[in-house]
Amino acid sequence: MYNLLKGKKGIIFGALDPNSIAWKTAERVHEQGGEFVLTNAPIAMRMGTINELAKKTGSQIIPADATSIEDLENLVAKSMEILGGKIDFVLHSIGMSVNVRKGRHYTDQNYEWTQKGTDVSAMSFHKVMSVLYKKEAMNPWGSIVALSYMAAQRVFPDYNDMADNKAYLESIARSFGYFFGRDFKVRVNTISQSPTPTTAGTGVKGFDGFFAYADKMSPLGNATALECADYTISLFSDLTKKVTLQNLFHDGGFSNMGISNIVMDTFMEKDS
After folding, report:
1. For residues 214 and 156, is the Cβ–Cβ distance under 8 A?
2. What are 228-271's pLDDT values in tens digits?
3. In whole angstroms, what is the distance from residue 211 CA to residue 122 CA?
4. Which of 1, 88, 116, 158 has the greatest number of CB atoms lying within 10 Å of its CB?
């Protein structure tokens, strides 16, 4: 290992189980010499196995509802106390759609559910950064990363209102990232990851089709959760100090593809 994060301290949101990108990222941060506090919503913590990760990485857990300013203020204050100073990196790996969970079609949303999903999936990112910004909790050249998906730019019908949430998330990263960069030299980026078989991802209708299609379209194939963790580490490190306000595609090349030979061949076979 390269000790890319030696001496760096941070907060990781959203580790649920060993399939989650946040979980893999926490393991990689630990391997690269970084220290962190783990956090998730109390209900998610009851569903997952985050205590195993905390034990493995020597980390403490602070439950927090990322939609609650009060919880976030407590999280940031306690994290700085535990870690002994300001924060160098933050991972926002949070997403939820009640409409998706309950099978409500995009054209027939329950708007109370929509609002809840927006608050959890996107507005929470603004709230996290707002608390960090007002408390001046980030060290200069720190890095804040949120996980997104390409449905923010292109139509994936069954991704439902999560597509809108991701578009909003990416906009928040750019807008808040300007102020964080200008005032505190902190960078803010989003990673647009390949379809990944996490607990959240596989809950989307037609996920297997998303996954297979993207894998066949991408010249390098789909990026795994572990590979996304590695990419996130590079953004937390000092090797990317001038990368900010970006939505960075980590998808094996899918985002620039029009058609691939293997997909074309599949359609030709059906026609013959």
Report:
1. no
2. 999 999 999 999 999 999 999 999 999 999 999 998 888 887 66
3. 23
4. 88
Angle at 192 between CA 184 and CA 72, to 5 degrees: 45
Q: How far is it, in rounded angstroms, from Cα 121 to Cα 125?
A: 7
Closest among 101, 128, 126, 123 to 113, alpha carbons compared: 101
Burial string for 177-193 (b: 16+ CB within 10 Å, else e) reads beebeeebebbbbbbbb
What was the pLDDT predicted at 119?
98
CA Rg value for the chain: 18
Domain-wise residue ranges, the chain: 9-271
- Given CATH 3.40.50.720, say whether it is the number of domain 9-271: yes
**CB-CB contact of 82 with 37 (8 Å):** yes
Q: How far is it, in rounded angstroms, from Cα 255 to Cα 150?
A: 7
CA dist 230 and 228 (Å) reads: 5
Q: How far is CA 29 from the centre of its chain?
A: 15
pLDDT (0 to 100) of residue 44 = 77
Chain centroid to CA 234: how far? 15
Q: Is the pLDDT of residue 197 over 80?
A: yes
Supply 226's token pair. Answer: 């572990």
The alpha carbon of residue 219 and the mean position of all alpha carbons in its chain are separated, in whole angstroms, by 23
